[in-house]
């Protein structure tokens, strides 16, 4: 339960977390299957802290704006609720070490496990985060067809008015100038080169009247681009709040993968199925 709840809160699925916490309460049954009343024991009840749920809801609100392409609103919410994310003067909050195990108490509150110190998988540098958001804002402003809508049929008989480009080129050029200025202020020359190259590629969007039809640039207009930025911002919000940017479930999977890889490289034999715990199934790739 703790692993599942940590995963749900980590990804801001607050309503699902509430439902899971309510439905996963330990119920004591008699021989006939009827529920009976017994004193609560450790682990019987799950209580989710209101502060944790509130923070997850705020993180979700930021992610939803990014996923829907409303980058400017997402930046406003970040500045209002998570001012350290895009502030150049912000310093990361220390990630606390797991607390030592305590003796069982009468009323247990088994919420998500304490954060585990780990490498941050994505950048949390405010300058990079702001650039990633503003580049996404440029991409969104370069669209000629809303994401998810079918592309209109092309026709040589279309009127000039129908083919008129509705994009605000003055605003787009202003965004390019802003991005160039921000990139020039990056201290790391490798980062400057990286973002300069990225900006050069992305600005090709305005060279086409119908960028959604152009394979060279249409890849920037996909939903996956929004998802990548939303995940990066979520990592940063968790990191700045002193929480692990990686869920405990993902860390457990990473550890399992590493252990199996080490066993395979070292020539250890995987235990036979006779001693594998119930409910665990080794794939053919792992068995070989």
Automatic annotation (TrEMBL):
Q: Which organism is it from?
A: Vararia minispora EC-137
In Swiss-Prot or TrEMBL terms, this protein is called: CTLH/CRA C-terminal to lish motif domain-containing protein
Q: Which domain of life is it from?
A: Eukaryota
């Amino acid at each position: 339960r703790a692993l599942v709840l940590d995963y749900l809160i980590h990804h801001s699925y607050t309503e699902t977390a509430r439902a899971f916490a309510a439905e996963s309460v330990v119920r004591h049954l008699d021989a006939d299957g009827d529920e009976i009343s017994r004193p609560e024991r450790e682990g019987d009840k799950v209580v989710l802290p209101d502060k944790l749920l509130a923070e997850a809801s705020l993180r979700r609100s930021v992610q939803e704006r990014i996923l829907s392409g409303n980058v400017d609103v997402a930046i406003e919410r970040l500045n209002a609720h998570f001012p350290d994310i895009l502030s150049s003067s912000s310093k990361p909050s220390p990630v606390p070490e797991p607390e030592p195990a305590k003796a069982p108490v009468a009323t247990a509150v088994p919420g998500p496990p304490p954060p585990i110190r780990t490498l941050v998988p994505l950048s949390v540098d405010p300058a990079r985060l702001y650039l990633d958001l503003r580049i996404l804002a440029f991409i969104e402003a370069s669209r000629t067809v809303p994401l998810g809508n079918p592309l209109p049929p092309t026709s040589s008989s279309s009127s000039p008015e129908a083919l008129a480009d509705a994009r605000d080129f003055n605003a787009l050029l202003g965004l390019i100038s802003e991005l160039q200025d921000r990139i020039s202020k990056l201290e790391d020359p490798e980062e400057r080169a990286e973002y300069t190259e990225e900006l050069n590629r992305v600005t090709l969007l305005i060279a086409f009247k119908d960028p959604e039809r152009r394979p060279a640039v249409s890849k920037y207009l996909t939903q996956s681009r929004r998802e990548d930025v939303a995940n990066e911002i979520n990592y940063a919000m968790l990191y700045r709040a002193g929480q692990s940017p990686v869920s405990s479930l993902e860390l457990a999977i990473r550890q399992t993968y590493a252990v199996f890889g080490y066993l395979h490289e070292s020539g250890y034999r995987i235990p036979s199925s006779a001693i594998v715990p119930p409910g665990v199934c080794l794939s053919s790739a792992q068995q070989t």
